[in-house]
């Protein structure tokens, strides 16, 4: 086994080692109920990271996911009363459309994705402020339970969020591994110019990747607002950093082409375990962001494929 | 090229024309826009953002990008307040020391960003974004989520002492613009920024130490962020981990709208100045004519896309990530 092969399994090894470390320090951590609860709590972040994976997989980045989720919490809270269950369609549709807009601006107007998604994020933030009147909104508890109650309950000891996460992961994995769409994403991420030369409509697939990212960020926002039974224009702030960390730590490098959604699941679990371990080791929550920032730098530095960057700008 | 409508001329003057048109538009809609009080309001709002925009201009001219300003401003503001209080809580006799110390700290922080970017070979947008998270995180950690206040009336004179109707801060900001202009036009460093932005390999081949210049560019940007942070503290009289919030989007928008090209080598300090004024005139004008100010971020988002699109030379771009 050479270094390259080991590298592929690094995220798995890191996860097992982390779980073991925390488990030894605090055996209570390993109780199934605790682990399941931990996994259930991280689901909105996981769904967001799942979408972000596609944007990074093709070699781009989506910095709008957090603003998107913010906006969707507001949209869901405002329109639940009038639309009922159809509000989910509205949310996912809005996410998909705004993601497409990011992709369109990136590919057709030649704006780098980190700027185009930043700009679309600004638009989302405005919409959220406008719809909410800049206040925190509450959902009607009865209606929320009637329409979306199934999202947040438990079946046995398993939180229902995990079933949703599992279903979305399965769909994404199917897209990535078993469809021409997934193949095209890989081709674009592995080498855009080569992909174009082989006749792939690169722009169309990139737009689709950003649209998927937007749609999944919207689902994350919807679930988050159901969990909190409300929404606000800044309620999901703090999601962006761990979402990027989850994707990169999982082993999908910024340069794209390798890794994938399964890696993101591992990455998200690593993030969850790090968070939980901070609790057990008495590290204050105020230090969390700084730690994740440093983890992010290390993760990028160790995963990025430098042969793809002619000059590092 | 050639002719009055050449690409260069459009890039040079378009932003200024937009600024004048906006001022004319808002004045026509509400003459109070051009009142001295309102202009002073715009100037005060623009001063901290101007410093941040000047800093990031140097980085963008190099063809890199710096997204660390939110963390840098928050951290510098918090540290400035704490140090100021520690030095006696008054500008005299010792409080003033906090100013140079924090500007140096800003430069050091920018240098760290530059080192992460250059030494670890991480693309600058991600290296700086991560360093920004670290900065905000450090500010949260230091303050424990609390607000740090400065009550010294001598220091607050930056805001309260008015000359010809404009507070002292505005004059200091103008002085900083000239410093930035001097660095851009009359120093080797300034010209090297353009050399790298125009073509990194060519610059390298001509003997420019590309890595050192890049790190210096980020350090310079960090120093300007620190000045911006000090202005922000003077304006608000307090600092917290959220002091730098929203600086990233606004400053990048300003610089790009002003006509500094994202791929480097084009535009400079004047473009950034015009860009910051455009953004602040829009923000203020929307309030003056009675539009809700939350439309701002959306308008800026559309504006930044438009600006990049207009400034991009399609023939020169093979593909975009």
Topology:
The complex is a heterodimer of chains A (313) and B (321).
Chain A: H1 3-25, H2 32-41, H3 43-57, H4 65-83, H5 87-108, H6 113-132, E1 137-138, H7 141-152, E2 154-155, E3 158-159, H8 160-178, H9 180-190, H10 192-197, H11 202-228, E4 230-231, H12 240-250, H13 261-280, H14 288-303
Chain B: H1 7-29, H2 36-61, H3 69-86, H4 98-119, H5 124-143, E1 148-149, H6 157-160, E2 162-163, E3 166-167, H7 168-186, H8 188-198, H9 200-205, H10 210-236, E4 238-239, H11 247-257, H12 269-288, H13 296-311
Antiparallel strand pairs in B: 1-4, 2-3
Helix pairs in contact in B: 1-12, 2-7, 2-8, 2-10, 2-11, 2-12, 3-4, 3-5, 3-10, 4-5, 4-10, 7-8, 8-10, 11-12, 11-13
Membrane topology (chain B): Multi-pass membrane protein
InterPro entries (chain B): ABC_transp_permease
Main location (chain B): membrane
Structure description:
The complex is a heterodimer of chains A (313) and B (321). Chain A has 313 residues and is mostly helical. Chain A has one domain: ABC transporter involved in vitamin B12 uptake, BtuC (Orthogonal Bundle). Chain A is built from 14 helices and four strands. Chain A has helices at 3-25, 32-41, 43-57, 65-83, 87-108, 113-132, 141-152, 160-178, 180-190, 192-197, 202-228, 240-250, 261-280, 288-303; strands spanning 137-138, 154-155, 158-159, 230-231. In chain A, the strands form two sheets. Chain A has a two-stranded antiparallel sheet with strand order 1-4. The longest helix of chain A has 27 residues, at 202-228. The two termini of chain A are 34 Å apart. In chain B, helix 2 packs across helix 11 (247-257) and helix 2 (36-61) packs antiparallel against helix 12. Chain B has a domain at 48-253. In chain B, a hairpin with a 2-residue loop joins strand 2 (162-163) and strand 3 (166-167). Chain B has 13 helices and four strands. The model of chain B has no long low-confidence stretch (mean pLDDT 90). Chain B is mainly alpha-helical. Chains A and B meet through helix 5, helix 6, helix 10 and helix 14 of A and helix 4, helix 5, helix 11 and helix 13 of B. Chain B: Part of the ABC transporter complex LsrABCD involved in autoinducer 2 (AI-2) import. Probably responsible for the translocation of the substrate across the membrane. Chain B: Keywords: Cell inner membrane, Cell membrane, Membrane, Transmembrane, Transmembrane helix, Transport. Chain B: The chain crosses the membrane at residues 12-33, 39-61, 73-92, 98-118, 125-143, 163-183, 215-234, 246-266, 273-292, 298-317.
